[in-house]
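pinging the channel bc i need a second pair of eyes. not urgent but kinda urgent?? the chain im working w is below, pasted from the shared doc
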Amino acid sequence: MLDSVTIHELASIVGADNILTEKQDLICYSYDATQMEFLPDAVVHPADAAEVSAVLKLANRRGFPVFPRGAGSGFTGGALPKAGGVVLVVTRMDRILRIDTENLIAEVEPGVVTEQFQQAVEKLGLFYPPDPASLKFSTLGGNVAENAGGPRCVKYGVTRDFVMGLEVVLPTGEIIRTGGETYKAVVGYDMTRLLCGSEGTLGVITKIIFKLLPLPEAKKTMLTIFDSIDGAAKAVSTIIGAKIIPTTLEFMDYATLQCVEKRFNLGIPPEGRAVLLIEVDGDRDLIEKQAARIHDLITPLGLVQFRAAKDNAESEALWKVRRLVSPSLRDVNPTKYNEDIVVPRSKVPDVIRTIEKIQNKYDIPIVNFGHAGDGNIHVNIMIDKDIPGMEEKAHEAIREVFQAALDLNGTMSGEHGVGLSKAPYIELELSPEQIAAMKAVKHALDPNNILNPGKMFPW
């Protein structure tokens, strides 16, 4: 617990209106998109890097932990205050500072909501591609901290690929800038890329410089249904092998289709066993040719149905199939463990078949969908915690799902990060030497283990 003197000092830094200590207020910052919940001792809303710096310097003097937080939409508990202490919320820092249309860059604060930033640059004919599913409420600081991805990363890359520079407050309170506004910069270590995906353990991001692209002229959306998962997976490699790189290649397995069709009756053919939602963008004439070529390429692969949108309204209607997945899952069971393994594209059928065996072994429903273009599968293990023993079986199943991905030269997380929920499994993927090297970096920057302690590594 924080003493009254420390609370008073925090209030003097951020202002009395920007610190919360009442339990009913703290509860709002005790959870995220996981099933976990930890109550902080206080919540502060700093206005700028100077206030963040003062909070962290006080934390080092007084010895309390600090947990950075954006919108709290993470799936691994990365912003949760497991050790009590102070949750530091960056949502007051929510300005788009500038959009440079000559150099195709933008400078923003970490509390800007992802979709609002995308809309602002698109009004100027520019494009910021990373599009995590939480884009309507997730913040850009959190996107950088987790190195968020999304459907469009198969063509454009993940958040890290668009971060050119950062302003960061180190765990000990020093304010530094990394990277900059030039596309080439090789002076010193690449701290920018190190901090992207560091899950708030190495610094608090207070400004971000993003690279932008010209906005594509048009897009074309196609919903394709196959009679087997192998056909859908083969379609992915066939399309890319034909030198067509779609903007998105979204995958849904049979269990997912059943969930959506049962609740929303979208008219999915009964022989459909897998769906690919394909989107291409670019020059209007080119994408029409690409769509026709894609249809020709995938027809021999067990294609059951092919729908191509003629305009934005039809595109939104096709995307509806994908967007209805999450609300459909609750019909299976009330509690969801959402894991985000990645395997090489060609190994998607192999890992799905292994997951089916795991499902049968533990008698737990598992629903799979995700980004087939980069092999990123969201494995949703659905349980009812009121049934004795089911939660324990779920954790055993999760371990086996992770191991299945690793056995296929994949990884146990493509975009959700490690946080708290995956920390117990990190030794499945990383060697003791790798973990020791990463801990050495953490200790060098955070000798008192003040910033987001307990995340990522089993300390």
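so The chain has four domains: 4-89, 96-214, 218-327, 333-416. and The longest strand covers residues 218-226. — does that match what u expected or am i reading it wrong
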